[in-house]
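User: Hi! Is it possible to get a structure for several chains at once, not just one? Here's what I have:
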Amino acid sequence: MSEVAVKPGRHRESTLYHALHGAGAGDGRTLEQLREAALKVYESEELPVWRRSGFWTTSFEGLDLDGLQVRHHNPHAPEGTSTTYNDDDTLSARARRVASKNNNTTTDPLPAIVGETLPERERAGRIVQRDGTVVSVELDPELKRRGVILCSLEEAAREYTELFAQWYSKRLTYDRHKLEAANAALWTGGAFLHIPAGLAIEQPFEIVYAIDGPGTAQYGRTLIVGERGADFRAHEYDLAGDFEGQALHAGAFELYLNDGARCHLAQVQDWGSGEVFDASTRFVGVGRDAYCHWLPALLGGHLVRQHLELAVSEPGGDMAFRGVFFAQEKELLDVFAVDLHETGPSGGDVHWRGAATGESRASFEGLIQIDPGAQQTHTYLQIHTMMLSHKARLDAIPSVLVSADDVSASHGGTVGELDEDAIFYMQTRGLDRASAVRVIVEGFFEPLISQLQDEPLEEVVRTKIAAKLAAAREDIEAYAASR
Amino acid sequence: MADLEIRNLHVRIEEREILRGVDLSIDRGEVHALMGPNGSGKSTLANTLLGHPAYEVTEGSIRFKGEELTEAEPHERAKAGLFLAFQYPVAIPGVSVANFLRMAINAKREEPINVKEFRTELQHAIELLDVDRSFTSRHLNDGFSGGEKKRAEILQMAMLKPDVAILDETDSGLDIDALRTVAEGVEKLHSEQGLGALIITHYQRILHYIKPQFVHIMLDGRIVLEGGVELVERLEREGYDQIRQEFGAHV
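Assistant: Yes, the chains can be modeled jointly so their relative placement is included. Here is the combined structure:
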């Protein structure tokens, strides 16, 4: 792989970047008030467009929002029966009605894609949202006895009012763009996970957002809190089957780790071949001496914009921010990943790897931001990309904004293509060309995938990447032949 | 007919003709040395025999065990029983030596090799090449020293059990201990498994450990002189210049 200087960025969003500051916890507003405020933004804003002058434009203007509905399912009903809210509902009425709906969710039906994707495994708990409704919640009874809470966010708002008020939207905002506002105003279902102090849990909690067909708007929202010294794993799956037509996932995710808490957080996103739009914002806050290992695997979606922010908010916090992405066909992926240090001493290590096939477009901006006073921060950002098609485009912009003088922060990256010498080498050992290509691409991602340190989840990611490579085989061959 | 039959092989890379009519026959169980100065076409022959896409065969043929391989894909040649130990082995990041070997072995088989059998064979190869057990969990050639890369080549050869192996300057860049280990490994595969080998070198060192039955001297894209091991001694005495003068008129 050749070492290629990554394009320097000058005038751009990141230089004006203001960290997610929150709208909710602590400011005294009720959920209802926050929903109403967000609704005003939602109604006044146009669909968002992100522009990176000279690099890329990510526009959601092609989304037919009026053609989408929040689709609800009766958790106890058999597959195929569902209720939907009509468009002539006022949005706030819809939000109210959903908020008051009783989701006593203990049984299936799960969407087919959940069974097809999630590994057979032991788990601490699992919550599944199908379109607009949480249709299944499972929690290890022993963990429940020890105080773990896993329920829909709707239920948390009703039943765990103190915790909800303390943490809900502590850092997430509702006024950055129309779809963020839509989530804040209209979210339904959702997931709430609370790990009590000192509890170490080996098996993961799984949080699933599944879109079950076209015409669906899914406003999913997750809130996770790890109390002092908690140690746990959380795996989010964002899934849709292959269908024709538009759907939307406008997601919001927040995770707060208190003193000394540790979390291995992973996200597997694959929206299938349908026209699924995804505009999501995710925030992870790392407290005093806490640690988070966060690995999003962004593996498919028609148009995906992810704002991912990992903030070390208290001294001694440390994090490893990993990510893999794979764009194919005509997909467009736009990732804005922020490694934020609000105080020191703190550590950071950001490492992303991505590949693009077909006519896809992947744009990655990674930002290290070290706030004034965050002394003794040491962080590094690297982004490696691999081109697998002459019609694909990959851009990576690393940037560093430092407002403290006793820190180390740097970035690096490579832009690679398939190494023909490596392919020939493997062929002489008996592997056919397609297998050799697969070995190279898997080897390219492997340093990150193996860091998931969870064999069933690693296999999910590996299998998905292998399937995408197989699907793009002709395209990859044509690219190799053209060079 | 010999196992590997190379007839009147002409090879071009881009617009330049490198091989200009090579004839060579190698049987299983035979050890051949191919010697010649830098640029004479030795590595081109090695790469062409395994089907490197940059080398274009313009005339002649490569047959292996009666099968026409001149236009075959590299992996088909490997499956037929040819092996190339590279002069510059390529790093395969993210793939361990053991996993790669398993993939390569399974590529040749209908049924995947069972775990126990694989382990036994790997252990055998590890001892043969005098490498540490942890060697096989490292990523193939990634960050390997020159000596480790060459050992990894012979380790792969031991596991894949080809009928005929081409060793492209396997001796270059090796210290004397590594050279002995590698050469003894090849010699053992030759004597135990009946491996046929084409040892490409421009030094005599390696031939002190593996005695070739046949020696071929290549100059300017042709084999100009053939004989037994006495040719090595003659080369040692006279150098390539003498031979070039003798055959210069013909090349």
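The mean pLDDT of chain B is 92. DSSP finds seven helices and ten strands in chain B.

User: Great, thank you!
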